[in-house]
Amino acid sequence: MGEYRIIGGKAASGEVQISGNKNSALPCLAATLLTDEPVHLLNVPDIEDVQVMLELLQDLGSTVVREDTHSYTITTGSRSGLLKRNLVEAIRGSILLLGPLLATNDEVRLTPPGGDVIGLRRLDTHFMGLASLGADCTISEDGEIHIKTKNGALIGSDVFLDEASVTATENVLMAAALARGESIISNAASEPHVQDLCSMLQLMGCPIEGIGSNRLRITGQKRLRGCEFRLGSDYMEIGSFIGLAGASGGQVLIKGVQHEHLRMIRLGFERIGITFVEDGPSSLLVPRKQKRILAKEVGGHTAKIDDAPWPGFPADLLSIITVCATQMEGSILIHEKMFESRMYFIDWLIRMGADIILCDPHRAVVNGPSQLFGSTVASPDVRAGMALVIAAVCAQGESVIQNIYQIERGYEDLCGKLQALGLEIERSE
Asked: What confidence tens digit (pLDDT) does each residue in 181-202 have?
């Protein structure tokens, strides 16, 4: 699985270019199945999850042409073929094939998707949403997912999701794009990557109203056309490098930024004493001089940072915020509401010297500043892995981070980018 060796104690300094949004790439790749015409995708991140999704599309009969490192032309073929179980189980994003395959084939079978280990990921919302469009959803004893349209076609409907699930919203969106009539999705997720998918579907000829809100109106089409679409920047990667710069005490210019997606992220980092400023239309600067003091609530009470659906603070950045808080003065409560296993990486931080009280699977109190010390740790998921990288950069001595596959699923050329920032890191298999 590979490992990183990091010598800590140096501040990150320099420039970094942000890659395309992983969470946009996967649904947009899946959406290429909705048309027989070529789709040209730009700013695609060169990461493991994307490569696995491309292999899945090829298994389904699509032709994939790599134009350069970050652009692909995909032409859908027969949409037939047996999906390799190991590929489906490799990434959580394989669940995004349900919507487009159901819309084009009227039936789909899929083994349970895989991915990282941050807790239970419900599939119920996917099934309920697709059932509202006229599908029967069953799971066999061996876990195989079987979904079939009741009358040979999906019918537009008023769909209410029981939770604002990102991938469920995306699946229902793609299915509704080829359903008969109009569909309304209420309690829809509205994250930037959902907005990217909506914008791409519009370019393919599907009218969508309410983009960026929790109520989407989709007018289904008999046929969609090809398009050229550029993915937005990865605001999770942006948040990660903001945290790296702030925690290490460095100064980093981050390029390829969409400022409109960073308002809540800004508030979250300000709460732990890290600020950044806009530096042109698509760049931001994390300056060297920071307060490095954890905020207090009105009345002097201990502050809290918690996650919430968009536009709330992203759950994926709570791991980053947690490790950054260990380097700041004061105390803060981190409340992760979505996944019951995400906070367990804190055990590794405690081993490295962090003063953290893990209250329960969802809450931790961080007291800082703490001197961290190098250790051997393992990445349980993408964002916790990046948080451990930041901890290693801040630590005294050498750290070894194992299972880096779980990091490189979501970060393009992380080792190279960190080396360019003056950090001592080596990658080995």
From this structure: 999 999 999 999 999 999 999 9
